[in-house]
User: Fold this.
Amino acid sequence: MKPLFILILSLAFGSTTALADSDKYGGENRGKPVLPSQSNKLWKQECGACHMAFAPGLLPAESWRKMMGGLDKHFGTDASLTAPENREITAFLVNNASNRWRAPSAPLRITETTWFQRKHDELAAATWKRAAIKSPANCAACHPGADKGDFEEDRVRIPR
Ligand code: HEC
Ligand code: HEC
Assistant:
């Protein structure tokens, strides 16, 4: 009986720790790494035309599918692509999406995700509105290496 008991115990314990990890930020967690070592030129060019090209690991696959399916109405602008361009970029985003997202949610804004809000809860509302920042989506204002997927806490610099 003893080995079975230990097996059950370790199974129960194992699943508890796995749950704790996936439950972080209510299951809305960015991936690790946020940017794959193999980037994509078309994505960088097209999705970096109006703002920084947001790394695929910042959102889950379902968010990218939704976003790429509605580029003609992209946050009040038209960011449409040709069908082949859309297919290539969608594949890059979906294949490298967050690998730690467990929630069924699929938000379109990174800045509305639970992990983003928890990581930035120390910042006052007025800080986001500073002239050099303007919007929480302006990652590079405070994370100089944002375009390389570098969001290390030690390298954060908040402009005055
Ligand atoms: C024609 C300009 C334009 C292009 C091209 C464009 N975007 Fe955007 N995007 C916007 C605007 C405007 C916003 C809203 C910015 C804001 O509210 O601060 C936005 C917001 C976003 C956000 C949400 C940021 C947040 O608040 O968390 C994501 C993610 C995003 N875009 C991804 C993409 C992807 C992926 C592509 C390439 C397929 C792309 N964008 C191409 C204009 C563009
Ligand atoms: C107003 C400045 C500011 C902006 C804009 C900003 N951040 Fe941050 N970010 C911070 C600060 C401050 C921290 C927390 C650093 C700490 O805890 O020491 C942080 C932490 C993070 C972390 C956690 C780093 C870690 O090591 O755990 C990530 C990931 C991150 N930000 C991503 C983003 C993304 C993606 C954007 C844009 C969509 C963004 N940030 C926009 C200031 C900013």
The first helix runs from residue 2 to 22. The chain is about 35% helix and 0% strand.
